[in-house]
Amino acid sequence: MREFMQICGFWFVMSLLWCIETRASAAVLPPGDCPETCGNVNVPYPFGINDTSARIVNPRCAMNHFFMLTCNSTYNPPALYFGNIPVQNISVDEGTMSVTIDEAFDCYDKAGLTMNINRWMQLGDGPFRFSDTRNKLTAVGCDTLAFMTDAEGTFGSGCVSLCEENITLEDSCSGIGCCQTAVPRSLKTLNISIGSVDNHSLVLAFNPCGFAFLADQRTFNVSNFRLSDNPYSTKDYPTPDVVIEWVVREETCEKAQSRSNTSEYACGDNTNCTFSENGRGYRCLCREGFTGNPYLQQGCQDIDECKEPEKYPCEGSCKNTIGNYTCSCPLGMHGDGKTGCQGFRITTLATVLGALMLVSIIIFLIVIIWKKRRKEKNFLDNGGKLLKHQRVRIFTEAELAKATNNYVTSQLLGEGGFGSVYKGVLADNTQVAVKRPKDLDKTQLNEEFQHEIGFVSQVNHKNVVKILGLCLETTIPLLVYEFISNGSLYQHIHQRRSQILANWKNCLKIAAETALALDYLHSLANPPIIHGDVKSANILLDDDYTVKVADFGASVLISPGQSNMATKIQGTFGYLDPEYLMTSNLTEKSDVYSFGVVLVELLSGVKPNSSIVMRSGEKTNIIQKFLSSLENKKLSEILCFNATDEEMEEIGVFAELAKQCLSSSGVNRPTMKDVAEELGRLMKLHQSLWAQQNSEETENFLGGDSSSYLSIEIETTKMKQPDTLNMTTISFEYSADSV
Ligand SMILES: *[C@@H]1O[C@H](CO)[C@@H](O)[C@H](O)[C@H]1NC(C)=O
Ligand SMILES: *[C@@H]1O[C@H](CO)[C@@H](O)[C@H](O)[C@H]1NC(C)=O
Ligand SMILES: *[C@@H]1O[C@H](CO)[C@@H](O)[C@H](O)[C@H]1NC(C)=O
Ligand SMILES: *[C@@H]1O[C@H](CO)[C@@H](O)[C@H](O)[C@H]1NC(C)=O
Ligand SMILES: *[C@@H]1O[C@H](CO)[C@@H](O)[C@H](O)[C@H]1NC(C)=O
Ligand SMILES: *[C@@H]1O[C@H](CO)[C@@H](O)[C@H](O)[C@H]1NC(C)=O
Ligand SMILES: *[C@@H]1O[C@H](CO)[C@@H](O)[C@H](O)[C@H]1NC(C)=O
Ligand SMILES: *[C@@H]1O[C@H](CO)[C@@H](O)[C@H](O)[C@H]1NC(C)=O
Ligand SMILES: *[C@@H]1O[C@H](CO)[C@@H](O)[C@H](O)[C@H]1NC(C)=O
Ligand SMILES: *[C@@H]1O[C@H](CO)[C@@H](O)[C@H](O)[C@H]1NC(C)=O
Question: Which partner for 608 in 148, 241, 428, 574 could form a disulfide, CB atoms 3.0-4.6 Å apart?
């Protein structure tokens, strides 16, 4: 602005007219050579200065003659006058002018009133009013009565101040030693008169004089006065300011703005017009975002808010716009930058992300460690420590999952109440059967179990399915068996109508081998390993039709002396030892009974649990039928194959053995050793008999390995690869109490 005025001023010197023309269509602008200060008082447009020392004064320096103030520069510093009232300050923003008007006062002595100065003030015809909001009529004294009216006496108001000695005037004007009353609106003239109630006669000692004046509430400080003050002796108190409000023109904004002659509207660019009730006229204001003198054409200039961060806060990057500014929050934060940015700073974001990542890594590690711990715990719980020292191979969970192709259904060999058996191929191409027991009560997997599992794992007999190893990492141990390719005896008898069993020799061989296996189990340890579930389905046949007794592991899960029949009795209906059923005491003799059933099954080809209807209409089972045909010497009736007379002799011995095995009382049954020996004897007998008859075909039967008399060539063609373990598993049932 100053620059503009200097430029304009420069040209004004050249041509006043030119300058006037350039602002012809705008609000009237003061010429550039107008003085702006008088002493230390700033005199902004619309005010102008009529300096007493200046030869010529341009009337355009003020909006109009009402705003022309007088500067008496003979004073040092020069003093500014509004009429005859000294002016202290002018505020364009507030539309005010602070002036000093001498106070009214009265003084008394013992004789009475000595001095009474009332004040009379008037603001002329201009658009000036006493401020009704800032000023208050104020009286100071202890017996003082102040009264004010306008010149015409259209209103009157006042206050009385009374007090006693030794009061303090430190606080605000509270009524003791000082009283105040409000000034009415639109006041242009004011008479202030002062008096007393009692000629100060009671308070003369400390308060000879009273004072009355208008005072600006913003600056008035009553403690500047003392009750002992006497304006004649010493005036050491400052005269309080009086605030005069002004408007540019006494008309409404609407009226001013609607004038066709735009130069009659006092407000410049980027301004707003405000109406003052006190002055009943309008003033100008720079719009928000602009600052300067709104009465100059281009007085209101854009504020560069970014340079004043205290007044115009911005947390982000600040950008000034005309009349406003934008503030964008830093990357990664959101919100209005002026009132603050929310969210994360990039660094905070990175920190948080980092922390999250760290936490996830820790959790990941914890999970891995926990899993490993769990595996180790399972391993230990399942007797890993004990078994480690034994010959049994310990498989890992992963190894078996891989071998069984993650227990895919196509690998399923069999399924039963106890769990499932899957075929698997180990890394070294060994075929295995993996038994996955169903959930067991964990507490049942006690040390005894572990011990026996360890023991059973050492079983090594050519007619017993080998346990290759265990997996102890799982909650319930997985059992890994060798894979037996040719199915079970059950399948051969009942499902395949296998030709190999249409031959007495083969039946005898299978019976003898099974007996050897059971005898082996019974004699291996003390207490003996009881199979517990001897049946045709648990007698597997390998490629060479060599017997492999399976599922003896079941027996170790049956602890003796359990009392609850319903949950404890294991085994398969039809094969179960009736004595075991009654006493629930599983012994080797229970295996002998079941074996007897298998012998009958071999002879008859009938399922032991199927019922047979007799000619008499009576229902019976194959065991009963077998026993009665043996009694009646009509054994051939139940045979499922043809036999020669010589063979029938052997079969008779065989049947007698079976009958002994089937004795209802365990003590009357032979031991497995007896049975194995008897069958072995029978085999030898048969072989020599057979050899005599077929001496020319010697090469047809194989001497086999020296330890076995059982190697007999099987004269049937090899069968298609069977779904081997299917039946072997069905009867094997874990139950919580049996473990
Ligand atoms: C300035 O003041 C003098 C004396 O009071 C007066 O004669 C003169 O007209 C004034 N000039 C203007 C421009 O008001
Ligand atoms: C200016 O002040 C001086 C000194 O008080 C006085 O004599 C003179 O009359 C004043 N001039 C005007 C114009 O008031
Ligand atoms: C005038 O008033 C302004 C605020 O309105 C203040 O900052 C300034 O100090 C005052 N000047 C005088 C001389 O009283
Ligand atoms: C006060 O003094 C005046 C004369 O100075 C006298 O006329 C008046 O009676 C006095 N009033 C009182 C209440 O003493
Ligand atoms: C106010 O004072 C003036 C000047 O002394 C006087 O002419 C006028 O009558 C007074 N008005 C009132 C109402 O007292
Ligand atoms: C006021 O103070 C003075 C001196 O401090 C003392 O002499 C006088 O008695 C006090 N007056 C009252 C009414 O307390
Ligand atoms: C009033 O003035 C006194 C001393 O003159 C000072 O101590 C006090 O702070 C002032 N009060 C205000 C509100 O300015
Ligand atoms: C507009 O008003 C100004 C000041 O009152 C005057 O000088 C000017 O001649 C007026 N213009 C017109 C076109 O009325
Ligand atoms: C100023 O005027 C403009 C438009 O005339 C209006 O949008 C704005 O609110 C006004 N501001 C004030 C503070 O009156
Ligand atoms: C400035 O911009 C903000 C929004 O960014 C808006 O709220 C405000 O009213 C604007 N101020 C002015 C004077 O236009």
Answer: 574
At 622 the pLDDT is: 86
Q: For residue range 656-668, what is the model confidence (pLDDT) as tens digits?
A: 999 999 998 889 9
What CATH code would you report for 488-730?
Answer: 1.10.510.10
With 50 as the cut, is the pLDDT of residue 562 above it?
no
Residue 272 beta carbon below 6 angstroms from any ligand 9 atom: yes
CA of 222 to the centre of ligand 7 (A): 8
Region at 561 (left for phi over 0; alpha for psi -120 to 50; beta for the rest): left
- Domain positions in the chain are 253-302, 488-730
Query: Cα–Cα distance between 218 and 196 in angstroms, integer?
Result: 28
Which residues on adjacent β-strands are paired with residue 41? 38
Instruction: Report whether residue 52 contacts ligand 2, using a CB cutoff of 6 Å.
Output: yes
CA distance 586 to 564: 13
Dist. CA 324 → ligand 10 center (Å): 6
CB 712 within 8 A of CB 509: yes
DSSP structure class, residue 520: H
Strand 241-246 versus strand 128-130 pairing type: antiparallel
Ligand 6 atom, smallest distance to 164 CA: 13
Distances from the Cα of 278 to the Cα of 88, 156, 190, angstroms: 21, 18, 15
CA proximity to 380, closest of 434, 435, 447? 447
Q: What is the mean pLDDT of residues 496-520?
A: 85
Specify the residue for token string 């997985």: 478
Of 517, 654, 674, 669, the C-alpha closest to 587 is 669
| Catalytic residue (one of 229, 241, 533, 577) | 533
289 lines ligand 10 (CB under 6 A): yes
Q: Helix (H) and strand (E) counts for the chain?
A: 16, 36
Residue 109: how many CB atoms within 10 A of its CB? 12
User: Cβ neighbours of residue 457 under 8 Å, at least 6 residues apart?
Assistant: 387, 390, 391, 392, 467, 469, 470
Q: What percent of the chain clears pLDDT 70, i.e. is strictly above it? A: 80
Whether the CB of 81 sits within 6 Å of ligand 2: no
| The two structure tokens encoding residue 235 | 């005036």
